[in-house]
Automatic annotation (TrEMBL):
The lineage of its organism: Eukaryota, Metazoa, Spiralia, Lophotrochozoa, Mollusca. The keyword Membrane applies. It catalyses: trimethylamine + NADPH + O2 = trimethylamine N-oxide + NADP(+) + H2O; hypotaurine + NADH + O2 + H(+) = taurine + NAD(+) + H2O; hypotaurine + NADPH + O2 + H(+) = taurine + NADP(+) + H2O; N,N-dimethylaniline + NADPH + O2 + H(+) = N,N-dimethylaniline N-oxide + NADP(+) + H2O. It is a single-pass membrane protein. Its cofactor is FAD. GO terms for molecular function: flavin adenine dinucleotide binding; N,N-dimethylaniline monooxygenase activity; NADP binding; trimethylamine monooxygenase activity. Pfam families: FMO-like. Broad spectrum monooxygenase that catalyzes the oxygenation of a wide variety of nitrogen- and sulfur-containing compounds including xenobiotics. Catalyzes the S-oxygenation of hypotaurine to produce taurine, an organic osmolyte involved in cell volume regulation as well as a variety of cytoprotective and developmental processes. This is Flavin-containing monooxygenase. InterPro entries: FAD/NAD-bd_sf, Flavin_mOase, Flavin_mOase-like, FMO-like. It is found in: Endoplasmic reticulum membrane.
């Protein structure tokens, strides 16, 4: 614990004040030389990279994870645990591997383009091992309380009480900053309906749904249209009985479609969680500009025109934000230039014995470049 700021009314005379001022100055020097201690709560997708980023900035992270594993909701378990999010057994991520990977650690080319949850977890473990992150994680450790210190206005520090889940031992700690990486899926959002308590059947939340076993030949109603709900509906449709369903009128369905379209046009839908969605490129550029990592495509065009064109016309993958600025990565260029190779690799399950000639590849590249430029000009002149 460090107490660096003290008020002058604590001193009895000028000598005491000079002594404390000298000690305070020495403490400040020590603080400059010693890294700030950062508490990271949770070691899922966000917690892992939070640890890595702290290390990149010369900070001292300590991560508290209440389970005995990394991965957060991507660590599948057969049984549901209250307060612990978990994917379904069949869950496949809905973002391609080149768009979802950490910006300085490409996903192996052998992995599927859209990965099953088991591959997502494998990738997290590879990332953790590659950067040596596990030694900064305290597993089976609950954060009991988190509050600002009495001198927070001057020190910016936090009081954290933790509890070991095995021994029950509690410990009080002080940190210079806290990163909360627990996600927003841990707690259930359970709707209520009139007379739901009188329903004779089984009612569960998608957090408790694991697979379709036990639902064979049953009449099932799935409420909601989020990712989990959609996955459950598709999977259950293969085993459930086909009950008689009365559809709304055509006009009612069209009214609903128009309503949803208008809501999406305003960037938000009526959902507890989807209000956090943003435009990917604009959001990433905004964050990168704050951190000094936004790629300067004009400067890049003069220095490396091939790479600049690939960044402008290609997918805006995370590697672009490692090309320049703080914590840039020397492998970013290679990752960008080979991202399609890693994308196509898992599709080559049946080699045909021949490859496309380079002259043909050049033709296709120029052709698609022309189409893209034409579409951009038409949009700029007639649709903007």
């Amino acid at each position: 614990m460090r107490y660096n700021i003290v008020k002058s009314n604590f001193y009895n005379d000028e000598t005491d004040m000079l002594t404390v001022q000298r000690e305070t100055s020495e403490n400040r020097c020590k603080n400059i030389l010693s890294p700030k201690r950062i508490a990271v709560i949770g070691v899922g997708a966000s917690g892992l990279t939070a640890i890595k980023c702290c290390l990149d900035e010369g900070l001292e992270p300590v991560c508290f994870e209440r389970t005995d594993h990394i991965g957060g909701l991507w660590y599948y378990t057969d049984s549901a645990v209250d307060g612990q999010a978990c994917v379904m057994k069949s869950t496949v991520i809905n973002t391609s591997k080149e768009m979802m990977c950490y910006s300085d650690f490409p996903i192996p080319k052998e992995y599927p383009i859209f990965m099953h949850n088991s591959y997502v977890l494998k990738y997290f473990n590879l990332y953790c091992k590659n950067f040596g992150l596990k030694k900064y994680i305290k597993f089976k450790t609950m954060v009991v309380s988190l509050r600002k210190r009495p001198d927070f206005a001057s020190s910016g520090q936090w009081d954290i009480q933790i509890r070991n889940r095995d021994s029950g031992e509690k410990q009080d700690l002080v940190f210079d900053a806290v990163m909360i990486c627990t996600g927003h899926h841990a707690e259930k959002n359970m709707p209520t309906f009139p007379s739901l308590d009188k329903f004779k059947g089984k009612v569960i939340h998608s957090n408790n749904y694991k697979d379709s076993r036990g639902y064979e030949d049953k009449r099932i109603v799935v409420v909601g249209i989020g990712n989990s709900c959609g996955d459950a509906a598709v999977e259950l449709s293969r085993v459930a009985s086909q009950g008689d369903v009365k559809l709304p009128t055509s006009q009612e369905m069209w009214d609903d479609i128009h309503f949803k379209s208008d809501a999406m046009a305003k960037r938000y839908v009526k959902s507890q969680r989807h209000t956090i969605q943003v435009d990917y490129v604009d959001y990433m550029d905004e964050i990168a500009e704050i951190g000094g990592n936004k790629p300067d495509l004009y400067a890049l065009l003069k220095k490396d025109p091939k790479l600049a064109l690939r960044c402008f016309f290609g997918a805006c993958t995370p590697y672009q934000y490692r090309l320049m600025g703080p914590n840039s990565w020397t492998g970013a260029r290679e990752a960008i230039m080979t991202q399609w190779d890693r994308t196509c690799y898992p599709l080559k399950t049946r080699p045909l014995g021949f490859e496309i000639e380079k002259s043909q590849l050049k033709f296709f590249f120029i052709y698609f470049l022309f189409i893209a430029m034409f579409a951009f000009i038409v949009h700029y002149l007639f649709m903007s």
